Model the fold of this input.
Amino acid sequence: MSLIEQINTKRRDIKTDGYPMAISEWVSMYEQGELDIHPEFQRFYRWSESQKTGLIESILLGIPLPPIFVSQRQDGVWDVVDGLQRLSTIFQFLGILKDHNKKSVPALSLEKTKYLPALENIKWESESAPKNSLPKELQLTFKRSKVSASIVLKESDENAKYDLFQRLNTGGSDLSPQEVRNCLLLMMNKQFFDWLKGLPSDKDFIDTTALSDRPLEQSYDVELALRFIILAEIKDDELKGMGDVGLFLTEKMSEIARNKRYKKAQTKDLFTQTFEVLNKTIGEDSFKRYSTKKKRHEGGFLLSLYETIALGVAYNIVNGTLCPEKEISKRAQGLWTTKAFTDWASSGTTASRRLPRLIPLGRKVFSA
Done:
């Protein structure tokens, strides 16, 4: 198929519409349940109070905002694909925002800005201090301000919404790659998201990975669990042809989330067994560098070790070929004298080049 034919085919797959809407119209749709802003996503978006104030200031000053991307569901409801934080900020300022438990979020109190220092402590309505309420004429101006909607219509290909979300929420986004995937999962299959998110709460996983607070805040533990379920039993041909690993993980995650026959119980059992064995044999040093000179483990978590050790142990558990437990620690330490490992374990090696070498190595090292 030629490039023109490919483009024309995909353009037919995605049907869109768009027009400017007053903020009052967005509010009406939200209050009537015709707009789903996915309040579950709030845990992944971290706008500061000054960023929120900046958005409200822009609206009051008449500065145009980027369009809100939405996807029209079969029931007619609009799913917000991009623009969650903008709409959430507007609704919070108006005092109508609800969290994922449908509880009211405290109304936003603005900060002073360079151009509008008088915004300090201003609320939409302040019963305790009426002088801090936004003046009525400005309330009218605010509600009449336009924010454009770009709509992916329900006639579009089912995957269009998820592809659009990923394109709009990566690159310049403040979210980590796994936080974007988490949002995708919540849109696709909330039950699967809850299941995946629960895997890293396993005590042995927590003990062996020993992650610091920062990566935990960015859902890195969930990404490690996702890597485990996708890569532990991956076939050689798929491993060699995966290309960009981040994109590969997202696509495989989407496939699994849509697969109603996916064996979650079996996968969870393998996950539990793997980290139980590692905690018993290596403990919190499981994925730390081993100094052959000092004869001890040091430093923090290393992804290359996780890819080699955890996935190698898991593969051999599945196939009934795991080496004796008393050998595991010694073999893990021995990786640091193995050229096949040290050549590919450096931080400068891309994952697409590293994984096709380290995963098979781990399978071999920890086999009986």
